[in-house]
Protein 1
Amino acid sequence: MTPARLQDVSEEELLRRLFPLFGGTTGSAEVLVGPGDDAAVVAAPSGSVVLTTDSMVRGRDWHDDWSSPTDVGHKVVAQNIADIAAMGAVPTGLLVALAADPATEVEWALALAEGIAQAAREAGAPVIGGDLSSAGEGSIVVGITAVGDLRGGRAVGRDGAGAGDVVAVRGSLGRSGGGLQLLLAGRGRTHRDAPLGDVDDPLARAVEVLCRVHRRTEDVPWRAGPEASAAGATAMIDLSDGLVRDLGRVARASGVRIELDGGALAAFTTGPLTLALGAEEAMRQVLSGGEEHSLAATFPHEVPDGWEVIGVCAEGPGEVVVDGEVPPVSGWDHFSG
Amino acid sequence: MTPARLQDVSEEELLRRLFPLFGGTTGSAEVLVGPGDDAAVVAAPSGSVVLTTDSMVRGRDWHDDWSSPTDVGHKVVAQNIADIAAMGAVPTGLLVALAADPATEVEWALALAEGIAQAAREAGAPVIGGDLSSAGEGSIVVGITAVGDLRGGRAVGRDGAGAGDVVAVRGSLGRSGGGLQLLLAGRGRTHRDAPLGDVDDPLARAVEVLCRVHRRTEDVPWRAGPEASAAGATAMIDLSDGLVRDLGRVARASGVRIELDGGALAAFTTGPLTLALGAEEAMRQVLSGGEEHSLAATFPHEVPDGWEVIGVCAEGPGEVVVDGEVPPVSGWDHFSG
């Protein structure tokens, strides 16, 4: 029996199968009108709303050989949640736009939805609406819009860092980039690999950790965003394109020189990163690995619990240095590669 | 000289060229944090926010031979604005997600943005953020999320119609479907055709009117949505998939039988529709033509200025009849065609 494809079921039948997957996510008292009408209505108790959108494209942002549809669904939501957190807001809802080749298997779409629902539940952000479109042969684009509320707090931009502020990170660094490196080198663990179970192999476990972070985006510290805002963070950013590149944006927007401490950064290379990649590549990933979706922020004084200080802001041009030197890291550009 | 493509310019350069196009749209006092940070922040004075998302896919939702990129940008925004209006809300902001083949010409993307900006200005809804992704060969997906505010009014769903309510339409019917019919038949006017200028040919003008509506979605009556809410509308819907199909959704959600008056509907066939397509096809388009993005609503008593009464709600099963008969109109399904 050939598997059912999107073109084999009506849109209404597909929605009937998708909605229950989001069921555990739609019970929020803040959702005033949920999926199924022209538009959703969500409470905005702070009198303002925080909004971001981020998409993943098959063959560009994920490879089917590496990532399961559940991985993809989890990752695209987590990326958006991180952007909401980086403003100091709490996620309150998600919109899902799926454009897919009609030959896509229905099971694939349902597994994607399961990953979206997992990440939605983790972040307490219900799926409030969406859109289905057919796309060209082989094409799948998953777009998420995330909505957030500041809970009466301040929005924290990228432009508020001042000379004398400390720079701190909440969450891991370099793991997603490390996982990508392993997958590119054919050393990674994909969704097709059998679970490790209780195999006692530290290297295999390290590879698994890094590749899971790359495939799914694990443990986005989204609660830390509003905590940082409340603790007086002067600037904050989601680490999506690599630590140095993203802090460069803070440095330029704020007009400060960000001076990072190589010793403090080395602490992020220990464990699975160094075990799987060696110390040198581990440090390269800490500085430039993308898609980590941890948070970086600047604080005038103390940093909240769980944040690690990695440097300071100084007077000077908008740039980032590590132990006084501009690090030789490249960036990522969506169109030119 | 070959035209520049997205892959030839950096993402930052592209954004530098795109942002000024949206410049006239970002001056709203309600935009607290605009494009360029992790997320945007928009005022939600009603303490809630209305949200919808709708995408257009190249080769599925438009054909390059028929529609210019400016047409596409205008249409995708207008579709979203209509959904916001259909809840009774005023549009307050737009997010734009573009996933495009890196070989797409830069001029194409800029012209798309110009269309988005035109529709954004018409609706007073600034572009507050977005996302750029690369996509596969030939693939372009334009996703919009629209945000709205109820201005203290009621959200109007699809489920509030009651027996005895009148059914009314604000805006045209069948024009977009008529334009599509003409284009499919090779009788349409595309963006490549020379402007008509002062040509005195009523048929050519009729064809132009219908095709423009199909290509761009003209004159979405978005102000009428909040007016209908204030006037006591019990149910409201954006007409995206055809009058009978969309009113069927209201009928089922509300548990009423919607009885339409063929004579009242015939009034919508006059002018360009009948001139270009003949009376019979004109009526077919009025009943089933998609993508019109006019509004339909039910009212307990009087209808506001500008709305045309086309029928009544009665006790009975959730269905739509015209002069007592279930009309033989088909629907539209995104995946199965």
Protein 2
Amino acid sequence: MLGIFTKEDVFFSLFRKSAQNVHDAAKLLMDLLTNFTDVANRAHQIHNLEHQGDEFTHQILEYLAKTFITPLDREDIHKVATRLDDIIDQMSTAANRLSLYQVKTIPSDARALGEVLVTATALLIQAFDGLNNKKKFAEVTNCCVQIHTQENEGDRLMQHALAELFTASNPDPVEIIKWKDIFQILEKATDRCEDVADAMQSIVVKHG
Amino acid sequence: MLGIFTKEDVFFSLFRKSAQNVHDAAKLLMDLLTNFTDVANRAHQIHNLEHQGDEFTHQILEYLAKTFITPLDREDIHKVATRLDDIIDQMSTAANRLSLYQVKTIPSDARALGEVLVTATALLIQAFDGLNNKKKFAEVTNCCVQIHTQENEGDRLMQHALAELFTASNPDPVEIIKWKDIFQILEKATDRCEDVADAMQSIVVKHG
Amino acid sequence: MLGIFTKEDVFFSLFRKSAQNVHDAAKLLMDLLTNFTDVANRAHQIHNLEHQGDEFTHQILEYLAKTFITPLDREDIHKVATRLDDIIDQMSTAANRLSLYQVKTIPSDARALGEVLVTATALLIQAFDGLNNKKKFAEVTNCCVQIHTQENEGDRLMQHALAELFTASNPDPVEIIKWKDIFQILEKATDRCEDVADAMQSIVVKHG
């Protein structure tokens, strides 16, 4: 056992699956933002991954409730599980809103936020893999730093998009309502990536 | 002692009172949505129940702080108490917004969301009662499943309502702002019911 | 050692610095709301204090992760640190929105909410100082009660402001969107002050 977990640790295995599921959803969302057709169906696909993610979260929390000695602090397990779930919830909500609001075209800032989410969730997977090998703890930390950078970029993109919406020469209130909502949901997804990174960083500090 | 609590357990007694208070507020809110008159006064009645709920939450958390050995995990007690409080806070805010925004008529989806809250909070009471008798743990689980179903229905209603607001032939931005806000608050109240159900489910798993 | 902490306790010292930083940000925000010029630069100054606050939070949580025996319950340390951070985040976001939305004039309710934040954050500092001396625990409680009063006042101001926005004779939807957002952010900052006060009250109950 080089890392925190034994090779077949249930928590590690479920975290890893959940992170992959979150990343898959980010890629579907990015595809939708890039090629904006068949919106309702493709939002529904993301919704299905969200349900799959609920199942992983449920399994983690149920296993946590039944397990007396855990490889990580209970609060860290809880935080990682629920925040991974929050990421995919926000992405699914964003896709759903694109469909509900009958959005016609996607602003470039929204696509850029989609890219941030693809990058940040790939870094989450990389960081999880590093948790299983103490020699890779520096790599985990490096991934977490990069996720922070992505979150900052997400924030910058949202602010740029909001400024554009409100300072248009003839602002359309309904468009503002729609896109302010969608941009804030996308940005919140990047915040939740940062929360997972913070929890992983805390795990590395405790076990380093 | 057949259940988790002794008969006079302070936590159980306060949880039960708080859940009843939440359910009473849900019924007042439903009455208001059904017979939409005297709005400011009746919103204030719901606000008074919210204050009563604050008092229960305060008593639970103070007793938790003073109690060394608790019948449930501290984190579960904390979660149940604060999430019950969140439900009534959201319902009180919804009633307040109906008054502040000088809403004229209530859409049918809002009444349906009110019904969801009445049903879900009745199920919470039933689930709490089951916690006190291990023979009824299956019933607790069944209530929690039904609360999830109600939460899904709340989500569906909110999405239907949002779609209607935005796809009206001549959408009124001020109406959209008002009702998007109110629908999201009502839906958040159903989410918090689900959180309490999740905490109860976790208690049943740990003590089953 | 008259209080909970030893004189050089790291947690106490960092809490105290973080609370002072939050109060400094509240004063800058109030200055901006009173003398509304050079908005982007002054919003950026508040943003810089937010970053300083992140650093304190990070130090507290890292020290918590490394420390086996803590002077307070771990959950209380965590709550105080993160909620202090939330206060300054909300204030920084409010300042940022004033700039992004190219706001022209400040309504009096917004200035009054700024005053509430200055008062509540000064009370937080006073309460922290009292934590270090059991003879001053009654003073801590008194400060917490006053912070609750401030939060109620913040809520009242926000409701008054929302009612005014929506009941104007000819409501401007874009103005409603901007100011509903800003007022809710300011009010949320007062809620987070109350959360810190609740955590301090819980500490006093446990150690009294």
Protein 3
Amino acid sequence: MLKFKELYKEFCGFLEKETFDFEPKELYEPVSYTLALGGKRIRPIMALLSCDFFGGDIKEAMNPAMGIEIFHNFTLLHDDIMDDAPIRRGKETVYKKWNSNIAILSGDTMFALAYKYITQTDSKYLKTILEVFNKTAIEVCEGQQYDMNYETEDNISISDYMKMIRLKTAVFLGAALKIGALIAETNRNNVDHIYCFGENLGMAFQLQDDYLDVFGNEAKFGKKTGGDIITNKKTFLYLKAFELARGEELKVLEENFIPNHPNNELKVEKIKEVYRKLKVDEYSAIEINRYYQKAMQHFEKIDCPDCDKVEMLNFAERLIKREY
Amino acid sequence: MLKFKELYKEFCGFLEKETFDFEPKELYEPVSYTLALGGKRIRPIMALLSCDFFGGDIKEAMNPAMGIEIFHNFTLLHDDIMDDAPIRRGKETVYKKWNSNIAILSGDTMFALAYKYITQTDSKYLKTILEVFNKTAIEVCEGQQYDMNYETEDNISISDYMKMIRLKTAVFLGAALKIGALIAETNRNNVDHIYCFGENLGMAFQLQDDYLDVFGNEAKFGKKTGGDIITNKKTFLYLKAFELARGEELKVLEENFIPNHPNNELKVEKIKEVYRKLKVDEYSAIEINRYYQKAMQHFEKIDCPDCDKVEMLNFAERLIKREY
């Protein structure tokens, strides 16, 4: 079985050869810019990994993998407008560098380009792949809407939050694996379990992301921690802290989780202190592990005696146990 | 062959049965609102008409036709944000009624929903249909980008303008007919000619739209004329007028085609007077007829002895010779 690094190299090679220097340049320059920003390319690699895992030919999965990566970047592009985010992967976001009209329309073009790549696959599984992809694309939009709703809504529960990250992040990881499995033409049982494996891994992945945003190693994480605290984002840590806090700790949370805090550094420090006191970091680790175990239960149900499970398990472990 | 009115009724019946009352409601209410705004439903009817014309079963074309209509409405939704347009079909636009984030994201959802409907078609022609649709979706984005570029660019030629309306409007009418023809499984020659028929008809349709915006019957047109003049839109009429105008007429154009004219009623009156003097209305009629004739040349090359051509020709004529 191919290793993650080999697949990463293969995919990046493919991506680099695909150029978008078409007219009008106002539309296509942001497409090239966005795709060149980098990122971990997790989703396309997952499609390739799954295809390879089930004995398929990764060449067959390359175009759909490209479609998956373009779609992911399209969602980031539009999310950045909605979230008013100036920086993405250390560079200006499209809507800051150009303007929001350009960001809307080049995003729309990327959406269409994603489908163009996904369509470039064998007719025999095209329809099934599209059904997965269409459903997932809609769910990702629903997840983003819940995320925006939660910004202004009070009384968000942990289960609301889990629903949101499932839609916004987890289902897409499941879908990437499922698409790879469909291209490899494995059986229905395996297709379903690899999806659930990916979905639960996706939950763990996002919870880990939230954890790292607060407690991550800044040097390794590549960005300053505390971003979610500064923006009062209702993550698992935030919601768990409010669930547990009483007396003085509740007061610190209430006094610091306010818009336009006069001292963000102090805010982050105080909130982190409360998080540690309440052990929400440990609760977070328990949740991450719970989803990781659920993922593993589905993985074990995959019926594929000839499959080399090592690389897939390595990948899953690296995804969750990463420190950045 | 089924008449336009029958197909319109069939399609509207189908559309009304498809409801979008899903969660989160912030995402789906704008979808239902947009689809209920009405409109002429020209594009889906063209797909059904073409399918029926070539002897196909319109039931097979209903889902793709729905996808076509949803996609068209998605483009309007996003265009309204970009154009800062407050009113669409006599009602508030989504971005005015809600906000631009809601409009971006419900638009994205409609894009995904469009593909969901288009995918609900027989596997045997799914790939071909998608190739047409993907290409067209990208072209429509390109057309919108040119349209935005032209707002601030000087020295736009009539041929630039024709390229823009071809991408933004005409190709989609061609694609709607082509998709219907593909579902009816007619031969390649017919598929290509019905596309070109639709594309040229689309050019005539847009030029007619521009003409009616200035010279249309306000009661029949359903909106006040002169909108394009007030916004200094570089339509065929505008560009032709600048091409022909000399001396006093050029002065009137230059003095009135300015941002924030103090008296829009007077502006429209003066520009219309120059347009009439320069006979740009007649030049416009010549162009419309030229594209109409090109459409007819392609129509004549359709090799289908058993096809009843009357209804298709009636439709084409009504599309172009309309007064509103």
